[in-house]
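ok new one. same drill as before - structure tokens go in, u give me an amino acid for every spot. 381 of them this time. try not to just spam alanines like last time pls lmao
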């Protein structure tokens, strides 16, 4: 396990060397190459917060926060991070299940960057109401027969396997299970590669399951435990998305400040205008509030005190909202300060502006997370 400054330097150097020279090309192509996963895996980036026993680096959530912050500072895009680190949402349930066979088949090769995994919960009928999902998995001997559809699945076009939320039981959250469905399973297909407003280099799939026969050995944990497994891991995903939000906001602020130093209007640099300087300070304030709050929640999560669990889950929702609000304001103002240049394809702040829009929707829409926080904090009737 590399030390703290090592993690940040490793992440920044990886972006400068392996990502920055190609990012626009990948954005335009709509996906990132598999070789990038291999390079990231070989340098221990993909598994940094996973236990050493499953092929990870043995670090914690705060290490992955440090890594992501440094990668954003060096110019990574939110889409790049979503596509490269999909392992962060596809694998944790498998690791937590403690199933050695699934760990060997899916976790180790993915953390090494040799395979790619996705997590499929959202369906065309809805994503917010996880307990209402309709994709069914009916047991027949030593297989499940899966029927249904998933949509908006990150890395789903390239995925070698998809950790899929299915209904094995009756209605409601008690009937949900997690099943690993491998690419190449007859009846399991990528229906469409979806085009999006932002996150262009992160491929997004619509998946279809028609009588797809999946071995019961691919069940993750207990049958019927899926909803709780998903809820347990959502906390980390929400903290990660909060880091995306303040990460791209911080980067957009840096770019805007540099632009305002150079750009002349009315015979003086933009920065010579008090209104511009104050805008940059306000952007900085919002970034730092989001960063401090998110890091605080991440540390509380790592502390892992059982009695803190409900408030940590609630705070993760609020930190995500705080960071998304910061990104919404800061990325917008960074475009504004760039003038027409900020509206041009290929200008970095333009990309962050578009990428920011998914963050208050993905991993739980703000309204849904606010309501969850209300219940956890005791404000529900
Ligand atoms: C680029 C991208 C990548 C994604 N990656 C993945 C992935 O890898 N895996 C995956 O499973 N999913 C993924 N998603 C799906 C994402 O998590 C869902 O879009 C999200 O959970 C919202 O679900 P929905 O789109 O079905 O919106 P709906 O559930 O239909 O909700 C629509 C809107 O209604 C509002 N709303 C919903 N419920 C309430 C309520 N109770 N009270 C008040 N307002 C409410 C919110 O504003 C919400 O945005 C991704 C989505 C995108 C766009």
């Amino acid at each position: 396990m590399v030390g703290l400054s090592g993690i940040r330097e490793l992440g920044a150097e990886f972006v400068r060397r392996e990502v920055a020279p190609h990012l626009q090309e990948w954005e335009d192509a709509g996906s990132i190459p598999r070789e990038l996963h291999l390079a990231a895996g070989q340098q221990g980036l993909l598994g940094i917060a996973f236990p050493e026993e499953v092929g990870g680096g043995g670090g914690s959530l705060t290490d992955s926060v440090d890594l992501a912050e440094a990668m954003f500072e060096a110019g990574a895009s939110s889409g790049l991070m979503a596509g490269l680190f999909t392992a962060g949402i596809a694998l944790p349930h498998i690791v937590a299940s403690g199933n050695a066979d699934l760990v060997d088949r899916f976790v180790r090769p993915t953390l090494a960057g040799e395979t790619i995994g996705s997590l499929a919960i959202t369906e065309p009928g809805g994503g917010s109401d996880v307990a209402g999902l309709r994709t069914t998995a009916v047991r027949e001997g030593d297989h499940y027969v899966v029927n249904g559809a998933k949509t908006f699945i990150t890395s789903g076009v390239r995925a070698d396997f998809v950790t899929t939320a299915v209904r094995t039981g009756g209605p409601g959250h008690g009937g949900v299970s997690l099943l690993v469905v491998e690419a190449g399973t007859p009846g399991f297909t990528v229906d469409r590669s979806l085009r999006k407003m932002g996150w262009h280099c992160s491929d997004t799939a619509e998946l279809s399951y028609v009588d797809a026969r999946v071995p019961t050995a691919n069940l993750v944990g207990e049958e019927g435990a899926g909803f709780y497994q998903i809820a347990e891991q959502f906390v980390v995903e929400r903290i990660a998305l909060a880091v995306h939000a303040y990460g791209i906001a911080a980067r957009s602020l840096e770019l805007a400040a540099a632009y305002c130093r150079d750009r002349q209007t009315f015979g003086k640099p933009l920065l010579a205008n008090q209104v511009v300087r104050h805008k940059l300070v306000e952007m900085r304030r919002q970034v730092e509030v989001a960063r401090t709050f998110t890091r605080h929640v991440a540390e509380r999560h790592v502390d892992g005190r059982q009695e803190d669990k409900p408030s940590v889950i609630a705070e993760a929702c609020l930190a995500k909202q705080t960071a998304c609000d910061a990104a919404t304001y800061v990325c917008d103002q960074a475009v504004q300060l760039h003038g027409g240049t900020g509206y041009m394809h290929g200008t970095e702040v333009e990309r962050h502006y578009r990428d920011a829009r998914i963050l208050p929707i993905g991993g739980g829409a703000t309204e849904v997370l606010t309501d969850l926080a209300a219940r956890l904090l005791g404000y529900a009737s």
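The longest strand covers residues 143-154. and btw The chain has a mean pLDDT of 97.
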